[in-house]
Amino acid sequence: MADKYTPRLRSKYEAEIAKAMTEKFGYKNVMEVPKIDKITLNMGVGEASQDKKKVQTAAAEMEAIAGQKPVITKARKSIAQFKLREGMPIGCKVTLRRERMYEFLDRLVTIAMPRIRDFRGLNPKSFDGRGNYAMGLKEQIIFPEISYDKIDKVRGMDIIVTTTAKTDDEARELLRLFGFPFPAPEAAAEEKQAA
């Protein structure tokens, strides 16, 4: 029987990242070391109130990006100004765990992020205070799975990385070791002074 496939970033976490985190934060127990729990992708489709097919198109694009079928999200309550009724499809989301999560993370960091226009690193302030990181993408075409010629509209999405870290500093270090391009603290301070 063939060996079970292990994603590159999972092997990297087990071999290097867990050790580096333990050295920096002095964890006593292996189970204390923070890890990435899940990654949630969410795409809101504003024009879905006029055309229901838009949600299906967005869901197909998200399935290509994530490698997993998304769940269609529906409106919780009616809002007359937006011509929205309760129960109408308004977007889609997908939650990635285990192997698929590591594979998506690898593609995001190594392929997609370098293709973002005018990219100067991720905002280090986008943590929620409990070790989770949220980022927004303006266009889905940065992913190689999406062909520019076949899309009907450039759509953005939210990516939420949920970690088991207790503090933002631990989560920031964990994601930095995974290859998230956060600017160095000195560079961020210099950029703020220049502005």
UniProtKB/TrEMBL annotation:
<dbReference type="Pfam" id="PF00281">
    <property type="entry name" value="Ribosomal_L5"/>
</dbReference>
<dbReference type="InterPro" id="IPR020929">
    <property type="entry name" value="Ribosomal_uL5_CS"/>
</dbReference>
<comment type="function">
    <text>This is 1 of the proteins that bind and probably mediate the attachment of the 5S RNA into the large ribosomal subunit, where it forms part of the central protuberance. In the 70S ribosome it contacts protein S13 of the 30S subunit (bridge B1b), connecting the 2 subunits; this bridge is implicated in subunit movement. Contacts the P site tRNA; the 5S rRNA and some of its associated proteins might help stabilize positioning of ribosome-bound tRNAs.</text>
</comment>
<comment type="similarity">
    <text>Belongs to the universal ribosomal protein uL5 family.</text>
</comment>
<dbReference type="GO" id="GO:0019843">
    <property type="term" value="F:rRNA binding"/>
</dbReference>
<keyword id="KW-0689">Ribosomal protein</keyword>
<dbReference type="GO" id="GO:0003735">
    <property type="term" value="F:structural constituent of ribosome"/>
</dbReference>
<dbReference type="InterPro" id="IPR031309">
    <property type="entry name" value="Ribosomal_uL5_C"/>
</dbReference>
<protein>
    <recommendedName>
        <fullName>Large ribosomal subunit protein uL5</fullName>
    </recommendedName>
</protein>
<dbReference type="InterPro" id="IPR031310">
    <property type="entry name" value="Ribosomal_uL5_N"/>
</dbReference>
<dbReference type="GO" id="GO:1990904">
    <property type="term" value="C:ribonucleoprotein complex"/>
</dbReference>
<keyword id="KW-0694">RNA-binding</keyword>
<keyword id="KW-0699">rRNA-binding</keyword>
<dbReference type="Pfam" id="PF00673">
    <property type="entry name" value="Ribosomal_L5_C"/>
</dbReference>
<keyword id="KW-0687">Ribonucleoprotein</keyword>
<feature type="domain" description="Large ribosomal subunit protein uL5 N-terminal">
    <location>
        <begin position="29"/>
        <end position="85"/>
    </location>
</feature>
<keyword id="KW-0820">tRNA-binding</keyword>
<comment type="subunit">
    <text>Part of the 50S ribosomal subunit; part of the 5S rRNA/L5/L18/L25 subcomplex. Contacts the 5S rRNA and the P site tRNA. Forms a bridge to the 30S subunit in the 70S ribosome.</text>
</comment>
<dbReference type="GO" id="GO:0000049">
    <property type="term" value="F:tRNA binding"/>
</dbReference>
<dbReference type="InterPro" id="IPR002132">
    <property type="entry name" value="Ribosomal_uL5"/>
</dbReference>
<feature type="domain" description="Large ribosomal subunit protein uL5 C-terminal">
    <location>
        <begin position="89"/>
        <end position="182"/>
    </location>
</feature>
<dbReference type="GO" id="GO:0006412">
    <property type="term" value="P:translation"/>
</dbReference>
<dbReference type="GO" id="GO:0005840">
    <property type="term" value="C:ribosome"/>
</dbReference>
<dbReference type="InterPro" id="IPR020930">
    <property type="entry name" value="Ribosomal_uL5_bac-type"/>
</dbReference>
<dbReference type="InterPro" id="IPR022803">
    <property type="entry name" value="Ribosomal_uL5_dom_sf"/>
</dbReference>
